[in-house]
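Lab notebook page, bench 4
Experiment: in silico fold of construct C2
Operator: M.H.
Input chain length: 132 residues
Purpose: comparison with the prior construct
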Amino acid sequence: MLTAEIALMSVALTDKSIRRLGGVDIWYGVLAGAVIVFGVARVVWGAKGYEYYLANHIFWMKMALFLAVGLLSIPPTLRYLSWRRRLKANPAFLPAAEEAARVRLYLWIEAALFLCIPIAAAAMARGYGLEG
């Protein structure tokens, strides 16, 4: 979903792409919520037990990355909502180039941090992050 947002923001925005961005962003949020639910379930009821995760430094780095990605997704979401409202009020509305560039920057930073999450997961799977 993040890749779709980046792709939509990489071309000239139109009324259609602004509406589509809102829909993609909703699914991004839904999937992020599902990841959280399944992740918590795995920590609580998973084979390794919650103690493994709570004592693992890489796990906490992964959680910090996930939180950072989540926080960075807020400004673009607010922009999409604002753009959709403004588009409803004025069908000719298009965001300023600087505003779109700012949203693109947030998306690319999100993507860069997001790529670190599976790296951290792979490190955890190999036993890194535990002391001793």
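Observations: Residues 2-125 form one domain. The chain has one domain: 2-125.
Next step: discuss at group meeting.
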